[in-house]
Design brief:
Blueprint: H1 3-12, H2 17-32, E1 35-36, H3 38-43, H4 45-53, E2 58-60, E3 68-70, H5 73-85, H6 89-95
């Protein structure tokens, strides 16, 4: 699988759904060397299948919303492995829905630390504790 194609596909993931489809059409059509009509793919299916088994991909269809992509299982597995490796730590956090606290937490060295409190909560300090 072409490393440049993997990089381009991994960059598309951050766009909105409509933009993803348009970008996928552009990237995959360029990688495949153009698209075939459904009729042309049907008439030359054996040739198209040989091309796909040989490591190329083929885009079929003319309308963006109706396009299909033929790719070998081996190339699909390589594409999945490559895209999984390229995920940054920030992307992984975004994927699981991480939301930062919104402020910096300062922790002093030592054993007897007071528990962290959320902002806006009333602080109750017992007399004689020296806080």
């Amino acid at each position: 699988m072409d490393g440049r194609l993997v990089r381009q596909l991994s960059e598309i993931g951050d766009a909105s759904e409509g933009d993803v489809i348009k970008e996928l059409e552009h990237v995959l059509t360029n990688a495949a060397g153009g698209s075939l009509t459904v009729k042309a793919a049907r008439d030359t299916f054996t040739k198209v299948l040989g091309k796909v088994r040989g490591g190329d991909m083929q885009v079929i269809g003319r309308k963006t919303e109706d396009m299909a992509v033929m790719i070998s299982l081996k190339d699909l597995a390589a594409l999945i492995r490559s895209s999984a490796k390229n995920m940054s730590f920030g992307s992984a956090l975004d994927e699981v829905g991480f939301a930062p606290l919104g402020r910096r937490i300062k922790i002093r060295p030592g054993v007897d630390q007071s528990p962290l409190r959320r902002p806006g909560k009333a602080r109750t300090v017992a007399r004689g504790m020296g806080m």
